[in-house]
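Below is how a single chain appears once it has passed through the pipeline. First comes the sequence as given, then the structure the pipeline wrote out for it. We keep one example in the README because the format questions we get most often are answered faster by looking than by reading.
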Amino acid sequence: MSTEVVAQVVVRPIRDSDVEALGRVHATCWHETYDHLISKAALENLSPRRMAELWSHMASRGEEYRQFAALVDGEIVGFVGSGPARDEDAPRERELNFIYVLDAYHGTGIGKKLFDAAVGDEPVYLWVAADNPRAHRFYERNGFALDGATQRQPFLGEEIDEVRFVR
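Resulting structure:
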């Protein structure tokens, strides 16, 4: 993908009508992101339909949640969401809950546009897979630093190690 893609991307709030497309993109992104961290069997149980069901609940969250989709040529290629901190010991009041962009669009600036839509310049924290160096570099470029916190989280019936970044 070229930098032309960035000029053509539309970032807009997620709509109820997006749930099917979000389910497809979400499932694909998880396969692309976690295939080295989760067993093939666990990933095989992940379906676009199952993810669309998850999105049918997430699309109707309240105003305190900021959820956006990135579209290129009318097709969703990424999404982001932030909301109130979920952790009791949260270092910030706001948390970046997720940001995913299809591999084909990595390096185009779409992730940055999504990130800016969901959190802008405000103080925020996030959890990310410990073994996800590309994501770590993205967050570091956007002013985040590891704060030393770690956790092991259930993920698709298995567990994944996460580290916390804070800005």
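The longest strand covers residues 145-155.

See the next section for the split statistics.
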